[in-house]
C-alpha cells in the first residue's frame, strides 16, 4: 500500500499513499510511534485507500497515534471517523491558512493525558505572565551568537546531558547536517571561555515559510538568567531576515513551566495541546 523513500533519520521516512491520498505528504515516525499527514481532508478517508490506512493503523503494534495537519474545519467529518481536535498552528500552510490538528489514537493509554490538571495550571500561569517584562540582554559574561557546524558537538553534548531521551536524533552528526544544509537555524549562549550553556533552534520549513521553535535547552546551573528569551529574540530575527519565514510556532512540553512562560512573555499564543505526542525523558509526553 505504501510508496516509501528513506528519510535522513533512520526511523523516519516520507511516504505517499494511493489516490485520493496520493498528493498528501506523510511522515512515518517510528521513534515516536506516530504517523503524520499534511493537507488531508476528512473526506479523503472515505475511500478504499483511506479505509486501508485506518485498518492498517488500528492493527499496528508500532504506531498508536495518527495526526493530520489540515486546513479543514469540518469538525463533524473528522469526529465521524474518530479523530479529535487537538490544536491550531497559525499560518502553517503556504497560502497563510492555519493548520488544524486532528488526532486518532490506537489505544486508550495513548489517548489519555497524564497530569492534565497540572498541565492546565501551567497554561494559566503562562497566560497570566503574558505581556510581562522580557529580558533580552544577557549578563556580560555571556555571548549570544549564531551557531555553525563546529558548534554541533557541544550543542549535542549539552542536549544529551539534559535529556535522557528525546523526540528525535540529537547526535552531533545530525545537528551538523541540520546546520550545514540549512534545515535549521541554531543560536547559542557561550561563556567567556567559549563553553555553550544554552541553545535553541528554529526548524525551517521554507516551502511553507514557517518554522518550529524547538531544541531549547539551558544548562541547569544557568537557568533563570534570561538566556532563553535572548535566544528566542535572535532566532526570530534570523528566521525573518535570513530565511523569509513569516510564522513561527513551538510545540513546547506541557509540563515545562519555565519554557511555556518564556514563550508567553515573548508573545506566543497558546492554541492547543498534542496529547502524548512524542518521546521525552518521562516517556510519551504532551
Summarize this entry quickly.
With 286 residues, the chain is an alpha+beta fold. It contains 8 helices and 14 strands.
Description:
The protein starts with a strand and ends with a strand. α4 runs parallel beside α8 (257-265). It is globular. With 286 residues, the protein is of the alpha+beta class. A hairpin with a 5-residue loop joins β1 and β2. Mean pLDDT is 90; it is low at 1-10. A seven-stranded mixed β-sheet has the order 1-2-3-4-5-7-6. A five-stranded mixed β-sheet has the order 8-9-10-11-12. A two-stranded antiparallel sheet has the order 13-14. It has eight helices and 14 strands. 29% of the residues lie in helices and 27% in strands. It folds into two domains: 3-111, Aminopeptidase, CATH 3.40.630; 116-285, 3-Layer(aba) Sandwich (Aminopeptidase).
* Helix share bin: 25-40%
Task: Please work out how many helical segments DSSP would assign.
Answer: 8
From N to C, what is the helix and strand string?
A: EEEEHEHEEHHEHHEEEHEHEE
The fourth-level CATH homologous superfamily of the largest domain is Gcn5-related N-acetyltransferase (GNAT)
The strand order across the widest sheet is 1-2-3-4-5-7-6
Number of strands: 14
CATH topology of the largest domain, which one? Aminopeptidase
Overall morphology: globular
Amino acid at each position: 500500500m505504501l510508496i516509501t523513500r528513506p528519510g535522513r533519520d533512520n526511523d523516519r521516512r516520507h511516504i505517499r499513499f494511493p489516490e485520493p491520498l496520493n498528493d498528501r505528504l506523510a511522515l512515518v515516525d517510528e521513534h515516536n510511534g506516530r504517523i503524520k499527514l499534511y493537507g488531508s481532508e476528512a473526506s479523503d478517508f472515505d475511500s478504499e485507500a483511506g479505509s486501508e490506512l485506518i485498518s492498517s493503523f488500528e492493527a499496528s503494534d508500532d504506531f498508536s497515534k495518527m495526526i493530520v495537519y489540515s486546513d479543514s474545519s469540518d469538525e463533524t467529518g473528522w469526529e465521524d471517523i474518530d479523530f479529535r481536535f487537538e490544536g491550531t498552528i497559525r499560518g502553517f500552510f503556504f497560502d497563510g491558512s492555519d493548520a488544524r490538528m486532528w488526532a486518532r489514537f490506537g489505544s486508550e493509554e495513548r489517548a489519555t493525558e497524564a497530569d492534565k490538571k497540572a498541565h492546565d495550571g501551567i497554561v494559566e500561569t503562562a497566560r497570566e505572565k503574558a505581556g510581562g517584562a522580557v529580558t533580552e540582554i544577557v549578563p556580560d559574561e555571556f555571548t549570544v551568537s549564531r551557531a555553525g557546524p563546529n558548534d554541533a558537538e557541544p550543542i549535542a553534548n549539552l542536549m544529551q546531558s539534559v535529556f535522557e531521551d528525546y523526540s528525535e536524533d540529537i547526535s552531533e552528526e545530525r545537528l551538523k547536517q541540520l546546520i550545514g544544509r540549512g534545515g535549521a537555524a541554531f543560536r547559542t549562549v557561550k561563556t567567556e571561555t567559549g563553553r555553550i550553556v544554552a541553545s535553541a533552534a528554529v526548524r525551517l520549513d521554507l516551502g511553507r515559510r514557517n518554522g518550529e521553535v524547538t531544541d531549547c535547552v539551558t544548562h541547569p546551573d544557568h537557568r533563570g538568567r534570561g538566556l532563553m528569551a535572548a535566544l528566542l529574540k535572535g532566532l526570530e530575527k534570523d528566521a525573518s531576515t535570513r530565511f523569509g519565514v513569516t510564522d513561527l510556532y513551538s510545540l513546547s512540553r506541557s509540563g515545562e513551566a519555565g519554557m511555556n512562560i518564556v514563550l508567553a512573555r515573548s508573545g506566543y499564543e497558546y492554541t492547543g495541546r498534542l496529547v502524548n505526542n512524542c518521546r521525552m525523558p518521562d516517556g510519551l509526553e504532551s
